[in-house]
Structures are given as structure tokens and as C-alpha cells.
Amino acid sequence: MKRVVSVSLGSSSRDHKVELDVLGQHFLVERIGTNGSIEKAVEIIRELDGKVDAFGMGGIDIYLHGSENAKYMIRSSKPLVHAAVKTPIVDGSELKNVLERRVVYFVDEQCDIKIRNKKVLLVSAIDRFGMAEAFDELGAKLVMGDLIFSLGIPIPITSLKLLRAAAVVLMPVLCQLPFSWLYPVGGNQDQITPKHGRFYQRADIIAGDFIYIRKYLPDNLPGKIIITNTVTPKDVELLRERGVKMLVTSTPDLQGRSFGTNVIEAILVAASGKRPEQLTKQDYLKLLDDIGFKPRVENL
Questions:
Q1: Any alpha helices (H) in the chain, and if so which ranges?
Q2: Which residue ranges make up each domain of the chain?
Q3: How far lies 108's CA from each of 103, 138, 195, 213, 276, in Å?
Q4: d(CA 33, CA 44)
Q5: 134-156 burial by CB neighbour count: b if 16+ within 10 A, else e?
Q6: C-beta separation of 254 from 266 below 8 A
Q7: Cα dihedral sign for 231, 234, 238, 243?
Q8: pTM of the model
Q9: Kindly report the CA angle at 102 between 256 and 144, in degrees rounded to 5?
Q10: DSSP code for 116
Q11: Model confidence over 205-248: pLDDT tens digits?
Q12: What superkingdom does the record give (predicted)?
């Protein structure tokens, strides 16, 4: 049996464990939340290093990308990366661009929802350039909420050109800050403070990281479409109560929940038997197709 462990800075209330078969191999896949503790995450990684087949790093990215050719390592992620000496560790970023670009086209082509002229709120595009570019290519009226959801500044970004320019300026500074200043970690992931409602209400589609979507979630979202990544059964019920029409996740439903891209990337790395640096985007696409992993679609 192969074992994949996602060590997350997120809330332990979102932990989950499944067994599944992938390309003829039996897998145990587990998510362990450390409630915001980098020290505990490092301890777990060191303890399991060399004993599991791949680590996923959840609740934090290794890099922030200022453009296609510029990336900056997040200082807070360094202890986690360095703790994994023998076992490969991935944050899902290599797969994210592939999966999330694909899911936007999937919605347009197979869900009877044409993206052109749809009003889209992408809560954070800086770590989802592929998704942002796909919405733009398909003619969406795109609002990117990076300043709103990451920094609490209620100024929308409506141009990919402006996003790239802002990223190049801000990334060298932001990647040095404690990650908890930029993204909810630990118990903060369980808190909802309705805010910035006008941006949610103006949108036909709300897309991007679910923790950000949930952070300021309004009480009512009638008829909205959510395109996101990781959701638990409680999250699905929450969206149903808010009146959401449809939920689409870029990763499949694995026995009751969709895991993050860090988990799926770790599964693919373990299944391939290769190091992450040996895999190309084409390799990931082929593995996804061979396994049959498809987006999850749920009418609420």
C-alpha cells in the first residue's frame, strides 16, 4: 500500500482519510491539519519522512508567482520544505494551473453554462493564473479579489495586465510576511464574517480558493455557481443553505469530500514513482486521464 499524507496549516476539523485504488495500486490518503502550527507541521513531516510515499503541503504554498517567469518562495514555507529530506513534498502548484484551467473549460463545454459575458468573482488570482487566464480567454467579465480577500482592501482588479504588474511589485514583500497575515490558518478557517457582499452579489460565478470564498460568505447567494477546490460535506451543506445553485470542484469527490490540489499532486507523484521535478505538465495531464480524475459537479 502506498501512503500519501497532506500536512496542512488548516483546521484539524477538516481532516479526512480515504483508501482508493490508483492505476492498480492501493493508496491510503490522509489529511492532517495542525491548526496553524508550523512547528507541529514540521514535527509531523520529520516523523513521517521516508515512511510515506509523498507529502502534500496544505494551507500554504511554497511559492508566490509574480508572473510566468518570476516566483518568490514564501518564507513561512521553508521549514516545512526543509523537513522533508527523503520523501517528496508538493504544494499542488504544478498541478493547479493544469487542473483549474481545465475546470473552467469543463464548465463552459459540459455544464451547459457559457462563460462568455458571465460576471465572475475570482477571490484570488495570484495563485491561480491558469484559472484567471481561462476565464479571460472565454470572455468572462472578470473581477479579481486579491486585494479584497488577502489584504482586506476593497478594491477589485479587473485586468490581468494590472494583476501581473501589481504582483511583480508586491510579491517580493508579501512572501516575507507571516503567511497567517495573508491567508486564514488554523481555527480562523472555521470563522465566517459576512463582508464585501456587493462583490459576491454582483457575480454569476464565484471562483477560487474555498477558504477565501468562505471567509466573507454572505447569508444568501441565490442562484450562484461556485467553482472551487477543497470542500467538506459541511461546506456543501453551508452552500446549499445559502441558496447556491451549483458547485463545481477542480478535484474529484473522494469518499465524501474533494481534496486540495496538493493531495492530488502528491497522489500522482507517488503513483508515477518519480520525483516531482521529473514530471512535466504533460505527464500530469496523462496521469489524470489514465486515472480518470474528473471535476466534481453537484447541483444544490
A1: 38-48, 78-83, 93-110, 129-137, 146-151, 160-174, 197-202, 210-215, 233-241, 261-272, 281-291
A2: 2-92+260-299, 95-253
A3: 9, 8, 29, 21, 31
A4: 10
A5: bbbebebbbbbbbbbbbeeeeeb
A6: no
A7: positive
A8: 0.86
A9: 90
A10: T
A11: 999 999 899 989 999 999 999 999 888 889 999 999 999 999 99
A12: Bacteria
Cell output for 181: 497575515
User: Do residues 182 and 160 touch, judged by C-beta distance below 8 A?
Assistant: no
Interatomic CA distance for residues 38 and 34, integer angstroms: 8
- Tell me which long-range contacts 40-46 makes (C-beta under 8 A, separation of at least 24): 41/7, 41/8, 41/9, 41/80, 41/83, 42/79, 42/80, 42/83, 44/5, 44/7, 45/7, 45/80, 45/83, 45/84, 45/89, 46/83
What the block records as the C-alpha cell of 96 is: 493547479
Check: CB of residue 84 under 8 Å from CB of residue 49.
yes
Q: Residue 28: what residue type? A: L
The chain-wide mean pLDDT, for the chain, equals 88
The total number of residues shown for the chain amounts to 300
Q: Do 249 and 233 touch, CB atoms closer than 8 A?
A: no
pLDDT digits (tens, 9 = 90+) for 7-23: 998 888 888 888 988 88
Q: Average pLDDT of 19-41? A: 91
Tell me what the mean pLDDT of segment 25-41 comes to: 92
- Grid coordinates representing 58 are 496544505
Q: Calculate the dihedral angle through the C-alpha atoms of 210, 214, 220, 226, rounding to the nearest 10 degrees.
A: 0
- 95-253 CATH: 3.40.50
